[in-house]
C-alpha cells in the first residue's frame, strides 16, 4: 500500500509539473487576429524569438489538424507546436512561429477528388478561405517584422499535413522547406515543388489518413527529380506527429534549410 501511495504521489507530481510546463509554454504565444480588410478574420498565436532587432529570423508556419478547429484561439496549441516553444529549441533555433486556427467546418486545403478508397486529388484553382487569409498574414508579417525571407518554413499535421502540401503546391516560391505529417497532396504537381526540401512523416498503420497519400507523394517527387526524406513509423497509427515533432533531428534539419 505504501509503495502504491508513493507511485500515486510521483505520478500526481509529474502530471502537475507537465501541465504547469505546458501552460508556461503556451503563454509564450501571443494572442493575435489578422483581418484582410474585407471583414474576414483569422485567429492566430505567435511565438517571438529573442528581441535582437539587429538580426533577421526564420518564420515557421504551423498548421493544426481538424480536431483543433474553432474560434477559441487556443486549441491549435494542443499538438506539436509546443516543441518549438521549449527553452532548448528557442535557444538553438530562435524563430517567429505562427500557429493560425482554422474556423469550424473549414479546411486549410482545397483539393477535389478525395474520397474513401482513393488517394487521387486535384488542387483546385482557388485556395480555401483560411489558406487565403494565412498567405495574406504571411505577406503582411514579412513587411513589418525582421523575417529572413529565405527561411520561411511550413509544417502541419493531418488536416494541416494536407494544408502544407496545398500551400507549397500553390505558392512554390514562398517556402524554403516543408514538413508535412500524415497528409497528402496533388501528385500531378510534384514537379512544381521538386526544388523544395521536404521531410514527410506518416504512421504505417494510420486508420484516419491512408499512408498511401504520403507514399504516392514521395514516389511522385522522386520521379520528378527531388530528394525528399520520408519517415514511415512502424506500428504507429494517426498520432505520428508525437514522434515527428519530438525528434530533434527533424527540427535541426528544418532550420538548416534555406532558399
Which structural traits does this protein have?
single chain, 259 residues, alpha/beta, 7 helices, 22% strand, globular
Could you describe the 3D structure shown?
Helices cover 33% and strands 22% of the residues. The chain is an alpha/beta fold. The strands form three sheets. The chain has a six-stranded mixed sheet, with helices on one face. The longest helix is centred in the first third of the chain and has 25 residues.
Short synopsis of the structure:
By secondary structure, the protein is of the alpha/beta class. It is built from seven helices and ten strands.
Radius of gyration over all CA atoms, rounded = 19 Å
Estimate the strand proportion: 15-25%
Please give the order of strands in the largest beta sheet.
Answer: 1-2-4-3-7-8
The largest sheet, given as strand count, sense and whether it forms a barrel, is: 6 strands, mixed
- What is the terminal-to-terminal distance? 61 Å
Structural class designation: alpha/beta
Bin the helical content: 25-40%
Q: So what's the overall shape?
A: globular
User: Could you report the average pLDDT, rounded to the nearest whole number?
Assistant: 90
Order of helices and strands: HEEEHEEEHEHEEHEHH
List the total number of helices. 7
Amino acid at each position: 500500500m505504501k509503495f502504491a501511495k508513493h507511485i500515486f504521489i510521483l505520478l500526481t507530481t509529474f502530471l502537475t509539473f507537465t501541465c504547469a510546463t505546458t501552460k508556461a509554454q503556451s503563454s509564450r504565444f501571443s494572442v493575435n487576429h489578422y483581418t484582410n480588410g474585407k471583414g474576414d478574420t483569422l485567429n492566430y498565436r505567435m511565438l517571438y524569438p529573442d528581441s535582437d532587432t539587429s538580426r533577421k529570423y526564420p518564420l515557421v508556419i504551423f498548421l493544426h489538424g481538424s480536431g483543433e478547429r474553432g474560434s477559441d484561439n487556443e486549441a491549435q496549441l494542443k499538438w506539436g507546436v509546443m516543441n518549438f516553444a521549449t527553452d532548448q529549441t528557442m535557444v538553438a533555433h530562435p524563430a517567429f512561429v505562427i500557429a493560425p486556427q482554422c474556423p469550424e467546418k473549414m479546411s486549410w486545403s482545397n483539393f477535389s477528388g478525395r474520397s474513401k478508397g482513393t488517394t487521387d486529388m486535384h488542387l483546385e484553382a482557388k485556395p480555401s478561405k483560411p489558406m487565403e487569409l494565412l498567405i495574406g498574414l504571411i505577406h503582411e508579417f514579412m513587411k513589418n517584422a525582421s523575417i529572413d525571407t529565405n527561411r520561411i518554413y511550413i509544417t502541419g499535421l493531418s488536416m494541416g499535413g494536407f494544408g502544407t502540401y496545398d500551400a507549397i503546391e500553390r505558392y512554390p516560391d514562398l517556402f524554403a522547406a516543408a514538413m508535412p505529417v500524415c497528409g497528402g497532396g496533388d501528385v500531378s504537381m510534384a514537379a512544381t515543388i521538386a526544388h523544395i526540401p521536404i521531410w514527410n512523416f506518416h504512421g504505417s498503420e494510420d486508420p484516419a489518413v491512408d499512408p498511401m497519400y504520403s507514399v504516392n507523394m514521395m514516389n511522385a517527387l522522386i520521379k520528378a527529380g527531388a530528394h525528399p526524406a520520408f519517415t514511415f513509423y512502424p506500428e504507429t497509427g494517426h498520432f505520428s506527429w508525437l514522434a515527428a515533432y519530438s525528434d530533434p533531428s527533424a527540427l535541426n534539419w528544418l532550420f538548416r534549410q534555406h532558399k
